[in-house]
From TrEMBL:
<keyword id="KW-0479">Metal-binding</keyword>
<keyword id="KW-0378">Hydrolase</keyword>
<comment type="function">
    <text>Base excision repair (BER) glycosylase that initiates repair of A:oxoG to C:G by removing the inappropriately paired adenine base from the DNA backbone, generating an abasic site product. 8-oxoguanine (oxoG) is a genotoxic DNA lesion resulting from oxidation of guanine; this residue is misread by replicative DNA polymerases, that insert adenine instead of cytosine opposite the oxidized damaged base. Shows a powerful dicrimination of A versus C, since it does not cleave cytosine in oxoG:C pairs.</text>
</comment>
<keyword id="KW-0408">Iron</keyword>
<dbReference type="GO" id="GO:0032357">
    <property type="term" value="F:oxidized purine DNA binding"/>
</dbReference>
<dbReference type="GO" id="GO:0006284">
    <property type="term" value="P:base-excision repair"/>
</dbReference>
<comment type="function">
    <text>Adenine glycosylase active on G-A mispairs.</text>
</comment>
<dbReference type="Pfam" id="PF00730">
    <property type="entry name" value="HhH-GPD"/>
</dbReference>
<keyword id="KW-0004">4Fe-4S</keyword>
<dbReference type="InterPro" id="IPR015797">
    <property type="entry name" value="NUDIX_hydrolase-like_dom_sf"/>
</dbReference>
<dbReference type="InterPro" id="IPR003265">
    <property type="entry name" value="HhH-GPD_domain"/>
</dbReference>
<dbReference type="GO" id="GO:0006298">
    <property type="term" value="P:mismatch repair"/>
</dbReference>
<comment type="similarity">
    <text>Belongs to the Nth/MutY family.</text>
</comment>
<dbReference type="InterPro" id="IPR023170">
    <property type="entry name" value="HhH_base_excis_C"/>
</dbReference>
<keyword id="KW-0411">Iron-sulfur</keyword>
<dbReference type="InterPro" id="IPR044298">
    <property type="entry name" value="MIG/MutY"/>
</dbReference>
<dbReference type="GO" id="GO:0035485">
    <property type="term" value="F:adenine/guanine mispair binding"/>
</dbReference>
Amino acid sequence: MALKAGDSIPKPDGEWIGAIRRHLLDWYDQNRRDLPWRKNKDPYRIWVSEIMLQQTRVDTVIPYYERFMAHFPTLKALAQADEEEVIKAWEGLGYYSRARNLHSAVKEVVEHYGGEVPSDPDAISRLKGVGPYTAGAILSIAFDRPVPAVDGNVLRVLSRWFALGEDISKVSTRRRMEELDRQLIPEERAGDFNQALMELGALVCTPQSPTCDTCPVRGECRARKEGIQEELPVKKKGKPPVPARVTFGWIRKGDRVLLHRRPSEGLLAGMWGLPTVDHPPEESSPGETLKQTLADQGLTVELGSILGEMEHIFSHRRWYVTLVEALCLGDGGSLPEDCRWVEESEVTAYALPNVYRKAVKIASETPEGIQGRLF
DNA sequence: AATTCGTGGAA
DNA sequence: TTTCCAAGAAT
């Protein structure tokens, strides 16, 4: 059976390593996908791709990457941009702190490294948003440094090659895998080897139903030999998203709508959206809490009808949203810093997370007759 | 070490 | 519908 935690890291023999390297690289040369970040080895282009690809599928990233690189073709172009513009270019991709960290790190490179991405492991690891994987990926792919870049694919592939039953969701496991991987990486073509490992995980050595029959290293895989490839890797199950009821306000005043900026920490940190409040279970008529919250801010509104209901699932939270319209009757003359009246046609100029874009779409498509019905 | 950060696609 | 997840990092 598979090796457990605490077992010593296996020492693959030289002949096995040679076979792995040869078979994997030959396969990669024949099967590598023609992805937009593989046009050249510009460290900046590699960097952007690696940040976007964090926890995000290749197919999802491609259009965002093309658009982002068209907008910010060079590191300096990105460094000179306003954060607003950067976030707008990231709109819809999720994990928005990635964009903020990338922007911050790029400016750091301009300030302290003359605009050239550092090839020093310690320097690059200090950049915001660059963790162990991303540092290894940039170093190996852009600078040909023979260092590990262990992502989810590599964890899975190595778990199977060596029949390791250690929980890959643990940080300690990733560190051990890096040491294991370090022995496999060739001095030549280190970047290709790392990418080949990931490519194999993405195309052949998949989480479910790996196609071992087409695998270039099926002869070197211990899991396959023991017939346990479907049981590996071992991964602790995550918790399901916690459900919560929230109310969005579609609050109009003339031809304007109220937008609100979320707190700088937590879910959708610093992002603009519709006014959002918790919907207490004891609240019978939706919108009362919203109305009260706005009143506390000096905004008096008259509640209208429910424009729609929707469900949105984040990685760890599930929102059941009630979208309520309201008419602003007047304000104290001053608006909180985190609130803004925006013409309906200008709402799309803001970088809105998808959960709010969906709500705006619903509100905008609701016939005027219904919106105005209660007023 | 365990949580928290989005989103959309597939089984 | 639920579950899992996809080239992780920050806290």
